[in-house]
Write a structure and sequence with these properties.
Length: 143
């Protein structure tokens, strides 16, 4: 028995600071809190220590979306000088409660382009982001 529609790509909307939803063909983000065993005398660890929070994100944009982003960037000091901005990733179906992940204080660190024989669409851009504050997954901060 099918219980209902699950979240799918169609239900994802990405909002950037200049207002309208940004068309992306892929978005990826992660949050990592490394830990390491701390040893003293003997072979067994006596505890553990935690490292710094590490967060990264990237998104792939088709040419029209990249043009909108680069137009915004040119009016705000260039792609790598855009002031830190938040990204909201919302996904919801009509009969379900909306879910929203927030990537706060993002800055662009890399812009990539690739094309290869057989591509049906060229001019895709991959934007790599540094996420400076803790990501919130559906309202719950990772810290």
């Amino acid at each position: 028995m099918i219980n209902g529609r699950v979240f799918d790509w169609e239900s994802i909307k990405v909002i950037l600071p200049f207002g309208a939803p940004l068309e992306v063909t892929n978005i990826s983000y992660d949050s990592e809190s490394p830990s390491e065993n701390v040893h003293g005398a003997g072979r067994a660890p006596r505890g553990y220590g935690r490292g710094n929070l590490v967060q990264n994100a990237s998104m792939d944009l088709p040419a029209p979306a990249f043009l909108a982003l680069s137009t915004y960037a040119s009016a705000n000091g260039g792609m790598f000088n855009i002031p830190a901005f938040n990204i909201s990733v919302g996904y919801a179906n009509d009969d379900q409660i909306p879910q929203v992940d927030t990537l706060p204080s993002c800055t662009i660190t890399k812009v990539e382009t690739s094309a290869s024989q057989g591509d049906t669409e060229v001019n895709m851009k991959k934007i790599t982001l540094m996420v400076h504050d803790p990501i919130s997954f559906n309202g719950q901060s990772v810290l």
